[in-house]
What we know:
Elements: E1 3-8, E2 17-22, E3 25-34, E4 39-43, E5 52-54, E6 58-67
Amino acid sequence: GDDILIRQQNVANEGDIVVADIDGETTIKRIHFDDANQLVVLLPENDQYEPQAYKQIEIQGVAVKVMKSL
């Protein structure tokens, strides 16, 4: 798997890869803000998974570096 360096913070910008807490479960996904529908959409990097939309999430951190394994 990949190694990810995370900066602990509770806000994110459009397109950031975030560590988010959803109902006690932690996930790492790219964030999209759907302002028209007032939703936060978490986009997986793996095409086998579907985007998930939420009214509110708890951001725990933002990825600052992704190190891929060869």
